[in-house]
Structures are given as C-alpha cells and as structure tokens.
Amino acid sequence: MSDKPVLEVDSICVTLGGRRILDHVTFDVRAGEFTGLIGSNGVGKTTLLRAILGLQRLDEGHILVSGSPISPRNRSLGYVPQRIVVDPDVPMRARDFVALGLDAHRYGVTRRTPRQRDLVDQILHDVDAERFADNRLGGLSGGEQQRIFIAHALIGQPKLLLLDEPLANLDPKSVQEVVALLHRVARDYGVAIVLSAHEMNALLPVMDRVVYLTGGRAASGTTDEVIRSEVLSQLYGHHVDVLKLHGRVLVVAEPGQENQDIPEHATLTVN
Amino acid sequence: MFSGFMWNAWEVGTMVAIVGGVVGFFVVLRGSSFPAHAIPNGAFAGAAGANLIGINPLIGLGVFSFAAALGIGGLARRGRADAVTALALVMMLALGAAFLSLSTQYEPQIFSLLFGEILGVSSSELAPVIVLGAVCIVAVAVLYRPLLLASIAPDVAAARGLRPQRLEIAFLVVIACATTMTVPVVGALLIFTLMIGPSAAAQCFTDRAGRAMCGSVAIALLTIWMALACAYESNWPVGFYVSVFSAGWYGVGRGYAAWNTRLRIARATPVTAADAFTMS
Amino acid sequence: MHFIVEPGFFSNGPVRTALIIGGVTAIVSAVVGVFVVIRSQAFAGHALTDVATTGGSAAFFLGLSPLLGFIGGGVIGAGAMDLIGVQRERGRDVATGIVLGTALGLAALFLYLDTTKSASTGATQQILFGSIFTLDPSSVPLVIVLSAFALAIITSINRPLLMSSLSADLTRARGINLRAIGVLFMIAMAVAVGLSSIAVGSILSTALLIGPAAASVRVARGLRPALVMAAALGVAATWLGILFAYDSFYWVPSSQGLPVSFFIVSLIFLCYLVTGIPFVRRGFREATSHRRGVSEASV
Question: Could you report the predicted ipTM of this complex, rounded to two decimals?
Fold first, then answer.
C-alpha cells in the first residue's frame, strides 16, 4: 500500500448563495481508512462531497485524489447519493444495476462476460444482497436499494467510496447493520470510506478519523484528537462541553447559546 | 394488400415501428412523454412550411423537429418545464396551420400530416427513412449504457462524470430524428402513442432492460402491422388505429403488472422474528 | 391608424361577436389557467384540450353544437385525469399520454367520418384551429353564462385550491375534501377549455389556458396580481389577434387571410418569452412592490 493519501483536501473554500459554506477546510484520507464527516444538517457536508466529486467549483484550494487533481471522470471514486428513489416501473434487476457499475461510462452495447457475472455474484454476496438480487430495483425496500447502490459503487473497485448521509432515516438496528457492512467491505476491499452523518455515535466503533464540520470550518483527526471540549469549543466559537459516557459522546452547549449548530448525538437512545 | 404501392407502406411501417420501439423504451424510462408529444408538432409546422415553399417535406420535418427538440431542451431548463413545453407545442401547431392556410391545399394536407394517411405512406421515399432510422438506432445503441444509468440514477451518473443534462439534449435530438421519419406514417399528433404504448407495456412484462427493449420493438411492430392492415381495409386513418392499439397494449401491460403484484404479495412470506435473527 | 385598423373593423358583425366571445373566454381561461400553472398541471391541462377535441369532432359528426361537444369531452377527460391522478408521479406521465393519444385517435376518426359523410370540408380546420369569425351571435348569452359559472366555481374554492397546491397534507388536515376540490376544479377547467376551443380551436386552446397564466405567474407577486395580469394579457392577445387576422385579409394576397388562432397563439407565446427576460421581470417586480417597499435584495 502506497504512502500517498487517497484523498487530499487542501484549504478549500466554497461560497454558495452569499454564504461561505466551506472555509479553508483541510484533511487527508489514507488508503483503507474509515472517515466520518460529521456535521448538522445544512452545514455543508453534501457540498464538500460534491466538491470531492468534481461537481462543485472551488473558490480557493485544491483537492487531489491519489495524487492527481480531481476530474468528474475519476474512476477511483465510488459514490452513493443521499436520496435513492427508483420507480417500481423501471425494468432493471438489482443484479443488472450492480453490473452497470462496471461500465456505465462506456459507449455501445455489449454482452456480459462470465468473468463479469462472477464479479457481480461476488459483490452481491459480500453486501449480503443475494436474496433479492433478481428482483426489480424499484421494488426493493430503501435499505435494500442502498445495499445495491453500494455494490454498484464498489464493483468498479474504487480506492475511495463516498456516501452522503447513508444513515439518515434508518432505524437504529439498520444503522448498525449498514455500519458493520461498510466496515467489513472497507477492510475486505481495501477501499477508503468517507461517510457523512449528523450523528456520530453509531460510527464511533469503526471510525479511524473524523472530520467535524461547523460554520464552514473543520477539525480533523482521530476521534480522541477531535472530539474534545477544547477543540470543539474553538471550532464553534463558544464553549461546549464534551461528555463521554458508556462509549457514547455527548456535546452540550451552555444554556442560552443561540448558535445551536450542534449535531444530535445519541442523547436519548440507549441500545 | 401486399402488392404494389402497399409494399412500400409495409417497409416504411416496419422501420417506423423498430425506431418507435427503440426510442420509446427510453421515452417511457425517462418519463419524457410530454416532449415526445411536443416535438412532432414542430415536425408538423416544418412539413407545412416545406410544402409552402415547395421543398422536400422531409427537410422541413427534420429542421423543425431538431429546432423543437433544442428549444424544448433549452427553454425547459429555465421556466417551468411543463408550461413551456405546452406553449411551444401549441405555437408549432399554430405555425403549421398558418403555413398551410397560405398554400392552396388546406384541409386534406392538415389531416394527413396530423393523423397519418396510408396513401401518403406508400408514396414516401424509402431510402431517407432507412437512413434516418439507422441513425436513431445507432445513436441509442451508442448511448445505451450512459443513458440507462442517467435515467435511473442521475446523481450517480453525474458523480461518474456522465453529464445528465447533455444526455437529455442528445436524447431529445434522437426523438427529433425519430419524429422526422415517423410522422408521415402515423401523423404528428399520434406518433408519440407508438413510442409510449408498446414500451410501457413491454416494461410491465419483464424485469430486464434488454428484454424490455426487445419487447418494445416487437409490440410496436405488431401494432404497426395491424394498423396498416386495418387502415388498408377500412380506409380510416392509420393514426387512429395506432393510438387505439397502443392504448390497448398499455392496458394489457398494466393489467398484467397489477395481477403480478397481487400474486407476489400473496406468495411473499411475512417476515417473522425468527427471520430477523437469521438475517444478521 | 388606417393601416393598423383596416376599414370596417368595428362595424363588422362577426368581428363584434368574435371580440365579445374571445374576450370573455380569454378571461375565464386565464383565471383558471393561473391555478393550473400553480398546480403544475400543464400537461394534464393540455391533455384535457385533446379530449375536448374528441368531443368537438364527435359533436360535429353527430350534428350537435361543437361547444357542448368540447365541454362534454372536457368533462369526460377531466374524469379520466382524476382517475389517473391518484397513481404515482411517473406512471401518470405515460397514462396521461395514452389517454391523450386515444382521444386524438378517436378525434381523427370522427373528423375523417365528417369529411366523408358531408361533402363539407373545413371540419378539421374548424374544430382544431377555431373559427372565431363564423360564430353564431346567438351563442353569446350561453357563453357568458358558462363563463360566469366557471368563474363562480373558481371564486368559491380559490382558497382551498391554493392551499392544496402548496401542500396536500396540510389541506387534508384542515378537513377540506381534497377530492371534491379536485373535481370542482376539473369542471371549471373543462368549461374554460370548452369555451376557448370555439374561439381558437381545441388543439390550440392550451395557449389561452396556460400562456397568459404562465407569463404572469413568472412576473407577478401574489395571486391577485397574477390573476389580473393573466386576464389582461389574455384579452389583449385575443383582441389584437382578432384585429391582425382581420387586417391580414388585406395584407395577404390569398382571400383567406391567416387564421385568428395563429395570431393569438403567437402573441401569447411572445408574451411568455418576454416575461422570461430578467430585465422585464425585475421591472415588473419593482412596479408591483412599490407599496410594500420590498427591496430588490429580498427577491
């Protein structure tokens, strides 16, 4: 494994609608690492992911993927969007959609080789989707569709997999399943994962690094380095306390603080 | 009905059906029914205009369809797509009516351009139809995979570097090309039914994209052949038969889909607590 | 002045009838149309006009009044749309297209039978593209009554209609019967479409329904200004269209002149394009917001 980071985000700035969404955000991701991009809704996580994908223009700074400047045609990136809506009328099996991940960018029509079919079978097995692989994509549940989209992104053997809020709107049990799946897949396929979320407790067991985003600024490092009162207080611009209890994290601002830009942290659930 | 002038009609009709099925597959997949309805109206104006200045109607059809496709694609991005498409559609029709009113043959021309006419079919030239049809089919074949992904999951397609907006414009141009060669047969107002009925039905019968495309073509062929035969016998407009048969296929397809869903629900085993344990 | 208004315009009987019927139907179409645009039902509205075509051509074939045929077709079409409307968003697209296609196919058949049954030509032209200069003056009272009826419906349901366009759930939560509102609106639409069909033809009546409405919604702030502006645009386009069509008898060498509907539709289309120009939009916004003192920055 080379020493070069898979992803280098270097002091990027993005302004949208008059607002500075990203302000000199800097962090690295190394091969096989699991990085959580944590921040409350609307803080700029999707903008950041779009910037990495090359879909968002940067005002300042630059981004490198495996040492090369980003371009939309970068094959070493996989992406799973936030909203997955596939109409039940669409004639496409889950299996075929995964296969499409191999060559959707190629022109022309072609038959699937046996080797490709084996690859598809393998991936479907690894994401635990064999059960419904032959069903229509649009007929699957949200969680099942998500797995298929993950498989679609993985089959191209990317070095980096980006997921936009995959855990939002999932019940706690499904959250655990998806996190475990991603962790396993990252390990087996040697792919680095960047996953955005507004709630980090489910990710604590598997995250190697965290990028904590608020007010356009970001702090990055291991969870121990970043999720501390001093660091977060500086980030927020006012004092916050970080409590660690039973393996969970709670970030609390003082009463009366109007800038409640704090993402929810499993305050109430105790599973 | 298989002799003489009708033979040309069968050949042209077959080509029309193949193109209608191939292009129609994506029209239904992308939900582009409205543009598919609107672009042929541009063709109507073009044919009327060509008629007025005495050039080959195919040229008028082609130029105006192309312009309509680009116009709809361009305008739709700004304002409300639906309203814009409706207005452009109607503007084209009005323009066509104006062109025709300036020439001498008003009534019969309108009718055959709008609804298709068997005699018009049989006297049209085969060569341009085959060339245009081939262009359409090749274009769809070349763009097949990117278009498929962009139609089903545009976010993922964008992340991959395929540009969904560009593909949309390209596809509208393909529709324009298909329109140019199909309007003289089925009529400007009714050609879109050939593109949506058979394809929508095919997509109900199979889960696989490739098979749905083939089914789309097969059903479109059946539709055109039946329509040509009936139009020959009764002298009623071809477009009438095409629209009615397309609607019939659509009904059959949706009926099948509904019946299938009911079967599937009945057969599916409910998820029990035991299943939940074994799943993780 | 003489060039713009050719001789005999105002004293001409058919022209007067045309102006009255055209003006009234333009107002009704514009008002109904604003709601159609707000509810993003332009495609459905257009499909309705095509089903009205079937009604009109069938009526013609059976020797009945085209106006009743248009409205009857519109009502049936509205019923079909309502049935389809409960389905998914995407399926609706194709389903509407199928209904539209079948309706036009049937219209094709009726028009074909028209031309073979009676030796009269001109059925296609009249039904599809309108014949505002040959309207029967005795139909004016009926037109006015129907227009008033449609406007009455809209006036009575305008608030729940607006609310349901913004949020169906919210409206339902308030205990308003969404279905009834939908049905009433469809009836108003059918009447509006029927009326404008006799003016500009059923195929083109979409322009009167959606054009002025879409243009004004882009530019006006608030429902009432939008309604007023749409009605004004519709009437202006219709009257100018009638004027130009009348004049074109003199301009164009052939004895027919250009169809009225062509002028009306072109003017409406032009209006829509003009309201797309940012400079125009800003001008309008500023003009209509002077009272509230709203600044440019908040736009």
Answer: 0.86
